[in-house]
Design brief:
Strand order of the largest sheet: 2-1-3-4-5
Structural class: alpha/beta
CATH class of the largest domain: Alpha Beta
CATH topology of the largest domain: Alpha-Beta Plaits
Largest sheet: 5 strands, parallel
Number of domains: 4
Shape: elongated
Helix content: 55-70%
Length: about 550
């Protein structure tokens, strides 16, 4: 979703361009209007703008002066100048300021649309280049970002001595120094847990950082890492030409500018990487004195405000909020998740989990700590089920990668628990089918070896099951009754024994469990359409 700013001191021109052109076909969903260069600069300070159309001749500040300022402060904005014939040579001079295109007034609608369409394609192409796979992979292989990330993690968590910092900062080519003004920004990806593997997360980090570098490069140095919580942490330092005294404070315009860039970053990640992220920005502080405190405050904001939210932006001037303290009662009510899973009451387990998830979503200002509590209970039930069945949970769900995923929001908990439960259910169903197949094979093997005295009761005793249960199970699995199978196997065996003329018919009858030869003859005739003697005579 792109946005455009139209600037002209003639209201009719602005209104016509804003409302009569089909900008939506290029993905331009927001069109801002300004009737002077001053109004345009105010809009640029307040909103994210991708394209700008400006008249070259306006009172007080010309279009050229406006675009010169835009190119200095908002380098990514594509600029188009509208020029009358009298200013044609003047318009040519504008190319020195980085004007993308200029059009002679009055320009036809088709000409304007063609120019804007070309610039939109340029914007997309530039961002695609920024996040291209080849560039990401080549950057990923470099060791320096890994070393920088490790140092920043240590600085955030345990701290690093000044002597070490003094040695490592220049060694790692980090343009940060003692008493620099810094701001900490944390980006939380709202990933779908089953969708991304560890390698994808690294590539996503590098894509986000490349976009951030492009956006912040003119005014800030950036230093980044992925922390122990799975968040992407970016420390920003103002570049020397706009740097202040190192007091740890930034004026309101600088704070506002940084917040606007952070908002644009969040939007571009969604637009070009198709990922939803939350962004939290700290207040300004002094390096390295304040970095741990700034980071700690951001983590506090995430835990207290974002456990039940996604795609949020929190500026650094928000007060810390006290998290709710009430426990998740439904998790501990009987029957517990452990009991439901152990007895394979899948529907009841899903229902209880859905109730818990719904209540968490409805709880205002749910803390991340409560999400972790719920995650611990749910994951504990999965581990309990697996280990009680003498299996590793990683084997049941197809690997350990999904077990190591960080779950920090209610949505992630819901996705993760649903994915895990489906894997466990599928595995249980497969094992149940396998165990039943093995049981049927065992019963048939017993019958084949004991045709003389085989019966439903003796077969059930052989596999330690109740005869009624075995009868129902066998019928459900094979489609025929167990007694029917025994009868068929006896008839097959009888037909085979008939080939040996040395064996008397009554002996065959007795060996197969038929004490009454007349009865044996009767059922043999029902099976083969002739008596045992007639069957033997035709062999």
């Amino acid at each position: 979703m792109l946005s455009m700013l139209i600037v002209d001191d003639e209201p009719a021109v602005v209104e016509t361009l804003a409302y009569t052109m089909e900008w939506e076909q290029f993905g331009i969903m927001t069109v801002y209007k300004a009737y002077s260069a001053k109004e345009a600069l105010a809009i640029l300070e307040e909103y994210a703008v991708d394209l700008l159309i400006a008249d070259i001749y306006m009172p007080r500040m010309s279009g050229l002066e406006l675009i010169k300022h835009v190119r200095q402060q908002y380098r990514h904005v594509k600029c188009v100048l509208l020029s009358g014939h009298a200013e044609f040579e003047y318009a040519q001079q504008a190319l020195k300021y980085g004007v993308s295109e200029y059009l002679l007034k009055p320009a036809a609608d088709e000409e304007i649309l063609a120019v804007i369409g070309k610039l939109v394609e340029q914007i997309k192409s530039e961002w695609e280049e920024v996040i291209s796979r080849n560039r990401l992979l080549s950057t990923f292989k470099e060791s320096l970002p890994v070393l920088r990330g490790k140092l920043l993690n240590e600085l955030l968590i345990t701290g690093v001595s000044n002597d070490s910092l003094e040695r490592l900062l220049p060694l790692y080519d980090l343009p940060f120094g003692f008493h620099d003004d810094i701001c900490v920004m944390v980006i939380r990806t709202e990933e779908s847990l089953a969708e991304y593997n560890e390698r994808d997360f690294h590539l996503l980090d590098y894509a986000i950082l490349n976009i951030a570098s492009e956006m912040f490069a003119d005014a800030y140095h950036l230093w980044s890492c992925r922390d122990m919580n799975g968040y992407l942490v970016i420390v920003a330092k103002k570049k020397p030409d706009i740097e202040e005294t190192g007091s740890g404070h930034a004026d309101s315009s600088e704070v506002k500018k940084f917040h606007l860039l952070a908002l644009q970053l969040q939007r571009n990640i969604g637009l070009y990487l198709k990922r939803v992220v939350s962004v939290v920005v700290s207040r300004w502080g002094c390096f390295p004195r304040d970095i741990q405190e700034l980071y700690r405050q951001i983590l506090g904001q995430i835990r207290s405000r974002l456990a039940n939210e996604s795609g949020c932006f929190l500026p650094g001037d928000l007060p810390e909020e006290t998290a709710v303290q009430h426990p998740l009662h439904r998790l501990y009510e009987t029957p517990t998740l452990h009991h439901l899973l152990d007895s394979q009451q899948w529907a009841e387990y899903e229902s209880k989990l859905e109730i818990v998830i719904r209540q968490m979503r409805e709880t205002p200002h749910l803390s991340e700590e409560h999400v972790r509590e719920a995650y611990t209970m749910v994951s504990g039930s999965f581990y309990y089920y697996a280990h009680k069945h003498n299996r590793l949970l990683s084997d049941l769900v197809g690997g350990s990668a999904v077990l190591d995923r960080a779950v920090r929001s209610v949505q992630q908990l819901s996705e993760w628990a649903g994915y895990m439960l489906e894997k466990i259910k599928s595995n249980a169903a497969a094992e149940q089918r396998s165990s039943k197949e093995k049981l049927i094979m065992k019963v048939r093997d017993y019958i084949d070896r004991n045709l003389g005295n085989a019966s439903l009761q003796t077969a059930a005793d052989a596999v330690y099951l109740h005869p009624v249960y075995l009868s129902r199970l066998y019928k459900a699995e094979t489609g025929e009754g167990l007694s029917e199978y025994i009868h068929k196997q006896r008839m097959v065996k009888a037909a085979a024994l008939m080939k040996d003329h040395a064996v008397k018919i009554y002996e065959i009858s007795e060996s197969l469990g038929y004490k009454n030869a007349a009865y044996f003859s009767k059922i043999f005739r029902e099976e083969f359409g002739m008596t045992p003697q007639e069957y033997r005579d035709q062999l």
